[in-house]
Write a structure and sequence with these properties.
The structure holds 2 protein chains of 2 kinds.
Chain A (H helix, E strand, L loop, with lengths): L4 H13 L10 H10 L5 E3 L8 H10 L6 E5 L4 H9 L4 E4 L4 H15 L7 E3 L2 E4 L4 E4 L2 E3 L3 H12 L7 H8 L8 H15 L4 E4 L3 E4 L1 H5 L1
Helix pairs in contact in A: 2-3, 6-8
Chain B lengths: L6 H30 L7 H39 L15 H48 L3 H32 L5 E2 H15 L6 E5 L5 E2 L3 H18 L3 E8 L6 E8 L9 H4 L14 H13 L3 E6 L5 E8 L2
Parallel strand pairs in B: 2-4
Antiparallel strand pairs in B: 1-3, 4-5, 5-7, 6-7
Helix pairs in contact in B: 3-4, 4-8, 5-6, 6-8
The chains are: A alpha/beta, B alpha+beta.
């Protein structure tokens, strides 16, 4: 959520290159709408948004029970403002100007913490995924994945053991408004099965997909 | 213009003149009365009359004293505003003084408004600069990836310098304004808890133990924003270097209790004693690439100076750095 177009472009480009699907909102109302209707892994929030300011927005989300991790990225860098941001429910606070690697590192940490993982590397059975370098290995051998395959896999592995519906996956891998086709998720899952072993991703009929460390062990 | 004589003197001269006139009129009247009733002699009744007259005079003096007392009160109110106990001149005053007090309060309102507007403008300027700086920093990153490492480094360095300048002068503008506006009072515990809460989030990855041990009745004569800024910089610096733990506590000055001493300890590597004065100096690390502590501590020192406090560094019992911030208590 950032109102300066150039910066917004730079951020979404960097996040996209790091393997995330990104939606941008340039004003508070739109950000509020997206935040309440879409399921995000993390939100990067500017405080000085037009129409509704960032802190109010954050307060609204937390009141509504939204637990999505929020990283505040703002020009307002005084300690008093940082305390306010954190007290309103932000999970991290960075002031401008910033280093993109640091934003990425902190977002990774937030997503990891929010999904209950403690080590940066995700591991399910014989497959390991390192979000820092977008690298996937199976039994220690590197596996080459396209960026969409990587997104699908990383989402499934972030929620290891839980059934993830097809629409949730679609939401996650495509930016909002992109040309979505739910069949493509099936295609990506099929390709991932080919690369990582057929039993690694389990289809739960009528519900969705699940990766399971115990199944993968067999 | 002639320098006006003292208020008291004028009142005194006025009342002497008034009494003189009155005496003369009284004298003439009594002569007339004596001529009309020549048989009356001095007796018991005249003594009572004199006693009553003396009583009236004493009451008159008392009246004058109490009449002037609102000025003493006004003076003590003004001095209490200066040391920050009050924000406005309060209380009811005699009809002649009340308009003056009202005007004074209106002037204070106006000034406070002007100062806060100026600070807001300084903030807008600073924040307006930071977003373009952020864009510039990302362009430098792009240049680096395109193989222009030297150009990227040059831009980065300048962006960093500008950011530090903006941060430093913004903190200063804010503090100068709040130092000028009277009525500062802040509970140290509230500010310290807030900062600790924030830093626990910001350094969540490091799992640092940040403990706050500040009695709830310790208040300092500073504005909340500025105490937040001082403690934020001190604790952030401690967290940057600490291995496992950071502590903050406070004590009243052992001599007369007129000051609060806030101590921040970390268990990091500490710094060389010869560097203590240097890191508190403005801009010591401004040109170095490392994420330095110098600038943050310099802001703390400047803010402390502004509030007639001080900051001192030495080594903590655990081997790390110990920072002691002294501020006037209230």
């Amino acid at each position: 959520m950032e109102d300066e177009t150039r910066l917004s472009q730079q951020l979404s480009q960097a996040l996209g290159e790091a393997g995330y699907a990104v939606d941008c909102a340039a004003d508070g109302e739109r950000a509020d709408f997206l935040g309440q209707t879409e399921r995000y892994d993390a939100v990067v929030l500017d405080l000085g948004l037009p129409s509704v300011d960032g802190l109010t927005l954050l307060h609204r989300w937390r009141d509504a029970g939204l637990t999505t991790p929020v990283l505040i990225l703002t020009a307002r860098g005084s300690w008093h403002e940082k305390v306010q941001g954190i007290d309103r429910g932000a999970d991290d606070y960075m002031s401008k100007p910033f280093r993109m690697e640091e934003v990425l590192a902190r977002l990774r940490a937030l997503i990891r913490r929010s999904s209950g993982q403690t080590s940066p590397e995700l591991r399910c059975g014989e497959v390991a995924l390192d979000p820092r370098v977008a690298k996937v290995t199976r039994n220690g051998t590197p596996v080459r994945l396209t960026s969409h395959e990587f997104r699908v896999l990383s989402y499934l592995m972030h929620h290891c053991g839980r059934v993830v519906s097809q629409s949730e996956l679609t939401d996650h891998i495509y930016a909002e408004g992109a040309d979505r086709d739910s069949n493509t998720v099936e295609v990506f899952v099929a390709r991932l099965r080919r690369k990582l072993g057929a039993s690694f991703i389990e289809t739960v009929r009528g519900l969705g997909y699940r990766v399971n460390s115990s199944r993968a062990d067999r | 213009m002639k320098r006006p004589r003292s208020f008291r003197l004028r009142l005194l001269i006025g009342s002497i003149l008034w009494t003189g006139g009155l005496l003369f009129v009284g004298h003439v009247t009594s002569i007339l009365v004596m001529h009309r009733f020549p048989t009356v002699r001095i007796n018991h009744n005249t003594l009572i009359g004199i006693a009553i007259a003396l009583g009236f005079m004493a009451a008159g003096l008392l009246q004058m004293r109490t009449g002037l007392s609102p000025f003493n009160e006004l003076r003590s109110r003004l001095s209490s505003m200066r040391d920050g106990r009050n924000r406005r001149v309060e209380g009811d005053y005699p009809t002649e003084v009340q308009p003056l007090v009202n005007d004074l309060n209106a002037l204070l309102d106006l000034r406070e408004h002007a100062v806060s507007r100026a600070v807001a403008k300084a903030g807008d300027l600073a924040h307006g600069l930071k977003t373009p700086l952020a864009v510039l920093a990302q362009e430098a990153e792009r240049a680096r990836r395109a193989g222009q490492a030297e150009l990227a480094a040059a831009i980065d360095q300048q962006v960093d310098r500008m950011r530090r300048q903006v941060d430093y002068h913004l903190a200063h503008a804010r503090a100068a304004a709040s130092g000028a506006a009277p009525g500062a009072r802040c509970a140290v515990a509230e500010s310290a808890e807030g900062i600790a809460r924030t830093l626990r989030r910001l350094y969540a990855e490091r799992g640092l133990a940040i403990s706050v041990d500040v009695p709830v009745d310790h208040s300092a004569q500073v504005h909340r924003e500025d105490l937040d800024e001082m403690l934020g910089n001190l604790l952030d610096n401690a967290c940057k270097w600490a291995r496992t733990r950071v502590t903050i506590d406070s004590a009243r000055d052992s001599r007369d209790g007129a000051a609060i001493v806030i101590t921040v300890n970390d268990d990091g590597p500490g710094i060389e004693p010869s560097m203590y004065d240097l890191v508190l100096q403005r801009g010591v690390r401004a040109d170095e690439a490392a994420p330095g502590s110098g600038f943050g501590l310099a802001i703390v020192r400047d803010l402390a100076d502004l509030y007639k406090g001080s900051i001192a560094l030495d080594s903590s019992p655990g081997g790390g750095l110990r920072a002691r911030l002294t501020l006037p208590a209230c």
